[in-house]
Amino acid sequence: MPSDQQHPQMSPDALLIKTASLTVRFGRRAVLQAVDLTVSAGEVVTLVGPNGAGKSTLLRSVLGLQRPTDGMVWRKPGLRIGYMPQRLAVDGTLPLTVRRLLSLWGPVTSEAVAETLGEVGAAGLADSPVQSLSGGELQRVMLARALLRRPDLLVLDEPAQAVDVAGQATLYALIDAIRRRHGCGVLMVSHDLSYAINGTDRLVCLNGHVCCAGRPEDVRGHPDFQALFGIDPLAMPAWLLAAGPHSHGDTSAPGGQHLHAQGHAGPAVKDTPTHG
Ligand SMILES: Nc1ncnc2c1ncn2[C@@H]1O[C@H](COP(=O)(O)OP(=O)(O)OP(=O)(O)O)[C@@H](O)[C@H]1O
């Protein structure tokens, strides 16, 4: 029986979300098959996989925006989620300041706006028109928007897209600092494999189903992971070999390696949820 109801008896204290045998079909096509996923407070879990692998669909299921066809999604009772979508669902032609953008989803005080923009390194942007922001500035503002909810869980869909390599490292370091400061869990999709492998607690390699999952230093040697990303096990790149518990948060060394996962060339429909 499909369900996304809450199941309190399944929750140790730190567990924020859990999916069990989550299956999502669109028509006859199963986009997610029997996916098991957990995220606990204070941990970063990163989803990697090819285009069309179901990463965004999994995030949407966790958010309650996509109903499971089968299996279940459990969310900790009272869980506050801050969501950073892949794209901004606001008409780019409307005149809109950052301050106004941040208040579109509910009332916020000027103090909260100033404090949160400061936290993401965008203190001077409150009165800037959204249209004038660079890619990196916009992502920081979107992160501020997610943080304004004081989330227990941050859900980030490709947070570093449209950000240059130097900016990506800074943004991922910022996300790491935020989860350390607030103790929130982070569930994100990343196409930047070098960050994913070096800056996450757990890596989930998705291609409709979970191909492999675990600590980066374990996943890097998994044949499914290597096949999906075209990695030659006899000639692993240095940044991949360096992946391990001590490299956590170090996004500088690999410098934005952007490997493209293989094995799927289908169309990727991007949904842009309008709330979070
Ligand atoms: N509402 C929908 N109706 C029908 N098909 C959908 C719907 N949403 C997603 N899909 C399809 O499901 C598949 C998975 O899409 P999803 O966006 O979850 O993949 P993804 O891994 O996030 O891809 P990308 O890396 O390109 O963002 C795609 O083939 C997509 O076309």
TrEMBL record:
Which EC numbers characterise this protein's activity in its record?
A: 3.6.3.-
Kindly indicate where the leader peptide sits in this chain.
none
Residue ranges, compositional bias (Low complexity): 253-268
Which InterPro entries does the entry link to?
Answer: AAA+_ATPase, ABC_transporter-like_ATP-bd, ABC_transporter-like_CS, Metal_Ion_Import_ABC, P-loop_NTPase
- Per UniProt, residues of the ABC transporter domain are 17-232
The UniProt keyword set, sorted, is: ATP-binding, Cell membrane, Hydrolase, Ion transport, Membrane, Nucleotide-binding, Translocase, Transport, Zinc, Zinc transport
Query: Which residue ranges does the record annotate as region Disordered?
Result: 246-276
Q: Name one GO biological process term.
A: zinc ion transport
Q: Which GO terms describe its molecular function?
A: ATP binding; ATP hydrolysis activity
Which Pfam family, an example, fits this chain? Answer: ABC_tran
Matches recorded under PANTHER family: METAL TRANSPORT SYSTEM ATP-BINDING PROTEIN TM_0124-RELATED (PTHR42734), ZINC IMPORT ATP-BINDING PROTEIN ZNUC (PTHR42734:SF9)
- What is this protein called in UniProt? Zinc transport system ATP-binding protein
